[in-house]
Design goal:
The complex is a heterodimer of chains A (about 550) and B (about 400). Helix content of chain A is about 65%, strand content about 0%. By secondary structure, chain A is mostly helical. In chain B, helix 2 packs antiparallel against helix 3. Classes of the chains: A mainly alpha (about 550), B alpha+beta (about 400).
Chain lengths: ~550, ~400
C-alpha cells in the first residue's frame, strides 16, 4: 500500500480502506499523509534532477575559460534558476515530504490535522513548478538576476520575472499551509503520554522550522510583491529614479533569506539526531540542550541578515552588530555537533548507509560551518563576498548538509515506507561516490574565491582555469552519483524489489515508527496508542 | 612572525597542491601569474598592498588556524570513537545521555572563542570605515557594463574618463577563450583606461551607479564596495607600492557582468603628477566646440569608435542586435528623417534602462554615433545629425 508503485491492496488489516480511491484519483484526491508525503518527495526529486541539470550546464560552460556552449545571458539564467529551483523546488518540499510521512507516525497520530489542506498545499506546487520551469521558453528567457533577485536588476527582466514572482507566491502559500498543518498536528495530535519534551527530535526541529516559515514567507511575499508593483504599477519602492532604495530590497529579502537558511537545515538536524542514536545504540545525548540549541538558532536567525550585505556599506555599528550576532550562532551550532559526537561516544556503532550519511553530514557540514564563521567576520567577508568562496560555503551546508541529511533519512526510513530493504552495497557506493565527488567539486572553489573569482561569471581569467576544470569534473561525477541513486536505489525499492523489511530493520532505532509493520499500513494509529513512559513504545 | 609563517606554509601548500594538480590537469594554456592580479592556481588571498588588506589576510589566517585546530580536535574525538566504539569490535553501548556540567562547559568555551575571534576583527572594521582626511577623492560610477572614474578632489581634480574591457578580449571570450598556446595573462582584466592613483596617499573612493547595483572590488587593496544607483557610498585605500592591480565587478549586473574589470595603476608621486599634466593637456585638446558644424565623413569616423566602445556589446558590430536587444540595421527609428526619436532614445534610455541612458556623453559624441548608425550597414540615409540638435533636445 505504502510501497509507492504497488497498487494492489495486500494487507488484511487495512481492508477498510478499500473504499479509498485507486488509480490517479488516489493521488489527485490524496488526503492520506503518507501518499502526500510520497508526492512531495517525488516532486522534489524531479526538481532536484532539473536543478542539477542546470548546474551541470553551468559547470560545462565553466570547464574552460571562454564561452563554449552558451552566451552570458543564458548562463545567468542557469545560475538564477538553479538557485530558485533547488531552494524552493527541491530542498523545501523534500523536507515537507519527510514531515508528512514521519510526523504523524512519530507522534502516534492518525494523520495530519488538516488533510484536505495538506492535499491543496501539495498540488499548489505543481502549477508553481510548471510555471517556473516554463520561464525558459518565454520572450527574453528565464529570470537572470541571480536567485536573490536583487532590485533594480529585476526591473530590467522580461515577462518571465512576473511568472517567477507568481510561482514564488504560490510556493510561499503552500509552505505556509504546510507549516500550519505541521504545527497544529504536533501541538494537538500527540498520543497521550507523549509530552513535548519526549517528542522525537525530528518533530521538534520541524515544529521550530514551521514557525520560522510562517514568520518569513510573508516577508518574501512582500519583497517580491513590491518588485512586481515597481515593474508594472509605477511604484518606486526600489527604484532610485523615483526615490526608492535598492538596498531596502536586500534588507527585506535577507530578513526572509537568513531564516530560510535555517528552514533548510533545521529539519536536517532533526534527521541526524534520529539516525545517530539509532546506529550508536545509545540515547541522544543532551536531548533538552538540543531543543534549546535549535530554538536559539531559530531566534538568532532573525537578527543576522545584515551579514549578507557587508559590501553595501553599512555603518560601523551595523557591521559590528551583524558580525557579532552571526558569530554567536556558532555557539548553539557547536553544541549540536558536540551532542552528536557525545551520542556516538562509547556507543556500539554500526555503519549502514544512513549512519554513513549522518557521519558524512557531521564531518562535511562542520567544514561549511567553519567557512561560515570566516565569512561572518566582516573584514574577511569584504574580501570574499560574492566570490566562489561563498559558493563553496553554502554548498557545503546545503548539499553536504541538507541533501546528505535527506539521503540519510531516506535510507533510514525507506524500509518503513516501501516494505523492502534497499541494497546496502549500492547505498555505500552512493555514499562514497557522492562524498568524494562533492568535495572534488566544491573544495577547489574555496581557492577560487580567495583568489578573487567572482560568482555568477560566465567567463574568467586564465589563472582560474585549473580549479574550474577540477570542479566541473567533480560536478559531473556528483550528478551521475545522483542518477545512480535514482535508477539503482530509489526505483528498485519503489517497485518493491529487495529483501522484505522487518518491522524493526535497525537494531538500535527507537520511536513509534518502528512499532508499526513495514511497509506502514495505509492508516496507522487510528486509535491513539497507549505509550510506555519513554513514549517510544506502544503498550500492547 | 605571523607573516613569515604564513608565507612558508602557503608556499609549501601551494607546491604540494600545485604538483598534484599539474599531474591531474594538463591544459595547453601557457598562463603565467599576473602581478597584482590572479596567480595560476592561487590558493589564498593575493599579497596585500594596503595595511587594511594585510590585517584582513592576518585575520583570515588567524581564523583558518583556529578553525583548523578546533576541527582536528573535535573530529579526532569522533574518529577515535568511530574506531573504538563500534559493534564489530565488540564494544557495548554505555548508558549515559545527559550532563548539565558538560553542556555548560561546551556552551561557554565556544562562546569565549567567538569573543576572541570578534575582538581583533572589531579594530579592522573601524579602520576600514574611516574615510576621513583623504588626499584624493575619486567618484567611481558603475554602469552596464563599464566603470567611470571622476577625480573630484585632490591632485588631478577634474579628470574624468570611462574604463571598459578591451574589445579584442571580449571577442576572444565569444570565440571560446584565448587560443591554445597563446599567453593572455590579463585575459578579461585589460581595460582601455585604468584608474591611476599615487602611491602612499589616502584615496577615498565614492561609489554610485547609473543603472543597477555593481560592486567595485580590488582584493590587493582589501576594498569591496557596492555601487548603488541613486545613492553614494564610500571606502578608501592607501597603496603602499607602485604597480598594476586588478579586480572585477562583484555584484551581478546583467549579461556582461563578467566583462567589466577594474584596473588600478599605482604610480610614484612624480609619475602621477606627470600623468595628471598629460591628462589635462589631452582633455583641453579633446574639448569640442559644441557649435562646430561637422562634415558627414568626420562625424561617421568619430561615431564608429564610439559605437564599438559603447554600443557593439549589445547591438553587435553588425548592428543586428541580439535576442531582446533591438537591431539598428534597418531599424525604423534609425532610418527616420525625424531625428528626435533616436536622439531621445539615447538621452533617456528605453525599457526601464534595458537600453541605458547616455545623457552623460557629450553632444558631439551622441551626434557622431547617431550619424554613424544612420550611415552604416544597409542604412544609407545620408542623414547628418549635428551636435547642436542634441543640445536642442536636451532642453
Amino acid at each position: 500500500m505504502s510501497a509507492v508503485l504497488d497498487h494492489h491492496h495486500g494487507h488484511d488489516h487495512d481492508h477498510h480502506d478499500a473504499h479509498a480511491p485507486a488509480g490517479w484519483r488516489r493521488w489527485v484526491y490524496a488526503t492520506n499523509h503518507k501518499d502526500i508525503g510520497t508526492l512531495y518527495m517525488l516532486f522534489s526529486l524531479t526538481m532536484l534532477m532539473f536543478g542539477g541539470l542546470l548546474a551541470l550546464g553551468i559547470r560545462a560552460e565553466l570547464f574552460q575559460p571562454g564561452l563554449q556552449f552558451m552566451n552570458p545571458e543564458f548562463f545567468n539564467q542557469l545560475t538564477t534558476m538553479h538557485g530558485l529551483i533547488m531552494v524552493f523546488g527541491a530542498i523545501m518540499p523534500a523536507f515537507v515530504g519527510f514531515a508528512n510521512w514521519m510526523i504523524p507516525i512519530q507522534i502516534g497520530a492518525s494523520d495530519m490535522a488538516f488533510a484536505r489542506m495538506n492535499n491543496f498545499s501539495f498540488w499548489l506546487l505543481i502549477p508553481a513548478g510548471l510555471m517556473i520551469g516554463s520561464t525558459f521558453f518565454m520572450p527574453g528567457g528565464a529570470p537572470s538576476g541571480g536567485w536573490t533577485i536583487y532590485a533594480p536588476l529585476t526591473l530590467q527582466m522580461g515577462p518571465s520575472m512576473d511568472v517567477a514572482i507568481f510561482a514564488l507566491h504560490i510556493m510561499g502559500a503552500s509552505s505556509i499551509m504546510g507549516s500550519i498543518n505541521i504545527i497544529v498536528t504536533i501541538l494537538n495530535m500527540r498520543a497521550p503520554g507523549m509530552p513535548m519534551m519526549k517528542m522525537p527530535m525530528f518533530c521538534w526541529t520541524w515544529l521550530i522550522t514551521a514557525f520560522l516559515l510562517i514568520a518569513v514567507m510573508p516577508v518574501l511575499a512582500g519583497a517580491i510583491t513590491m518588485t512586481l508593483t515597481d515593474r508594472h504599477f509605477g511604484t518606486n519602492f526600489f527604484n532610485p529614479a523615483g526615490g526608492g532604495d535598492p538596498v531596502l530590497f536586500q534588507h527585506v529579502f535577507w530578513f526572509f533569506g537568513h531564516p530560510e537558511v535555517y528552514i533548510m537545515i533545521l529539519p536536517a538536524f532533526g534527521i541526524i539526531s534520529q539516525v545517530v542514536p539509532a546506529f550508536a545504540r545509545k540515547k541522544l545525548f543532551g536531548y533538552a540542550s538540543m531543543v534549546y540549541a535549535t530554538s536559539s538558532i531559530a531566534i538568532l536567525s532573525f537578527i543576522v541578515w545584515g551579514h549578507h550585505m557587508f559590501s553595501t556599506g553599512f555603518p560601523v555599528t551595523g557591521q559590528l552588530f551583524f558580525m557579532y550576532a552571526t558569530m554567536l550562532i556558532a555557539v548553539p551550532t557547536a553544541v549540536k555537533i558536540f551532542n552528536w559526537i557525545a551520542t556516538m561516544w562509547r556507543g556500539s556503532m554500526t555503519f549502514e548507509t544512513p549512519m554513513l550519511f549522518a557521519v558524512g553530514f557531521i564531518f562535511v557540514f562542520t567544514m561549511g560551518g567553519f567557512t561560515g564563521l570566516i565569512c561572518a567576520m566582516a573584514p574577511v567577508d569584504i574580501q570574499i563576498q560574492d566570490t566562489y568562496y561563498v559558493v563553496a560555503h553554502f554548498h557545503y551546508v546545503l548539499v553536504a548538509g541538507s541533501l546528505y541529511a535527506m539521503f540519510s533519512g531516506f535510507y533510514y526510513w525507506s524500509p518503513k515506507w516501501t516494505g523492502v530493504m534497499y541494497s546496502e552495497t549500492r547505498g555505500k557506493i552512493h555514499f562514497w561516490w557522492s562524498l568524494i565527488s562533492f568535495n572534488v567539486t566544491f573544495f577547489p572553489m574555496h581557492f577560487l574565491g580567495l583568489a578573487g573569482m567572482p560568482r555568477r561569471y560566465a567567463d574568467y581569467p586564465m589563472q582560474f582555469a585549473d580549479f574550474n576544470a577540477i570542479a566541473s569534473v567533480g560536478a559531473f561525477l556528483f550528478g551521475f552519483a545522483q542518477l545512480y541513486f535514482i535508477v539503482c536505489i530509489v526505483i528498485p525499492v519503489m517497485r518493491g524489489k529487495g529483501a522484505p523489511a522487518p518491522q524493526r530493520p535497525w537494531e538500535g532505532a527507537e520511536g513509534l515508527e518502528w512499532e508499526i509493520p513495514s511497509p506502514a499500513p495505509f492508516h496507522t494509529f487510528e486509535n491513539p496508542p497507549k505509550l510506555d513512559e519513554t513514549a517510544t513504545r506502544v503498550l500492547a | 612572525m605571523m607573516r613569515t609563517f604564513n608565507k612558508n606554509l602557503a608556499i609549501k601548500l601551494a607546491a604540494a597542491c600545485g604538483f598534484a594538480l599539474a599531474s591531474l590537469v594538463n591544459f595547453a594554456h601557457a598562463t603565467q601569474d599576473l602581478p597584482g592580479g590572479p596567480a595560476v592556481r592561487q590558493l589564498n588571498l593575493p599579497p596585500a598592498v594596503t595595511k587594511i588588506a594585510e590585517s584582513q589576510a592576518w585575520l583570515h589566517w588567524f581564523m583558518l588556524v583556529l578553525c583548523a585546530v578546533i576541527f582536528v580536535g573535535v573530529f579526532a574525538v569522533m574518529f577515535y570513537s568511530i574506531w573504538k566504539h563500534r559493534k564489530s569490535v565488540g564494544h557495548k553501548a554505555a548508558d549515559f545521555h545527559e550532563s548539565l556540567t558538560v553542556e555548560v562547559i561546551w556552551t561557554v568555551i565556544p562562546f569565549i572563542i567567538v569573543i576572541a575571534m570578534a575582538a581583533p576583527a572589531t579594530k579592522v572594521v573601524i579602520a576600514m570605515k574611516d574615510t576621513t582626511n583623504a588626499d584624493l577623492t575619486v567618484k567611481v560610477t558603475g554602469m552596464q557594463w563599464r566603470w567611470a572614474y571622476d577625480y573630484l578632489r585632490g591632485e588631478g581634480e577634474g579628470i574624468g574618463f570611462t574604463s571598459s574591457l578591451d574589445r579584442d578580449q571580449r571577442e576572444m571570450s565569444n570565440e571560446g577563450g584565448p587560443k591554445a598556446g597563446t599567453e593572455v595573462n590579463d585575459y578579461l582584466l585589460k581595460v582601455d583606461h585604468p584608474l591611476v592613483v599615487p602611491v602612499g596617499r589616502k584615496v577615498r573612493i565614492i561609489t554610485t551607479s547609473t543603472d543597477v547595483i555593481h560592486s567595485w572590488a580590488v582584493q590587493a587593496f582589501g576594498v569591496h564596495q557596492d555601487a548603488i544607483p541613486g545613492f553614494v557610498r564610500d571606502t578608501w585605500f592607501q597603496a603602499e607600492q607602485v604597480g598594476d592591480f586588478y579586480g572585477q565587478c562583484a555584484k551581478i549586473c546583467g549579461k556582461e557582468h563578467a566583462y567589466m574589470p577594474i584596473h588600478v595603476k599605482v604610480l610614484s608621486a612624480a609619475d602621477y603628477t606627470a600623468w595628471v599634466a598629460a591628462q589635462k593637456k589631452q582633455m583641453a585638446a579633446l574639448a569640442d566646440d559644441p557649435n562646430k558644424v561637422w562634415a558627414l565623413a568626420d562625424l561617421i569616423k568619430r561615431g564608429e569608435k564610439i559605437y564599438s566602445a559603447n554600443c557593439a556589446a549589445c547591438h553587435q558590430p553588425d548592428g543586428k542586435g541580439n535576442g531582446p536587444v533591438k537591431p539598428l540595421d534597418g531599424s525604423a527609428v534609425v532610418l527616420d528623417t525625424d531625428h528626435s526619436k533616436q536622439i531621445l532614445t539615447l538621452l533617456n534610455g528605453r525599457l526601464n534602462g534595458a537600453m541605458p541612458s547616455w545623457k552623460a556623453m557629450s553632444d558631439t559624441d551622441i551626434a557622431a554615433v547617431i550619424t554613424y548608425t544612420k550611415n552604416n550597414w544597409s542604412n544609407k540615409t545620408g542623414q547628418l545629425v549635428q551636435p547642436s540638435e542634441i543640445a536642442q533636445a536636451r532642453k
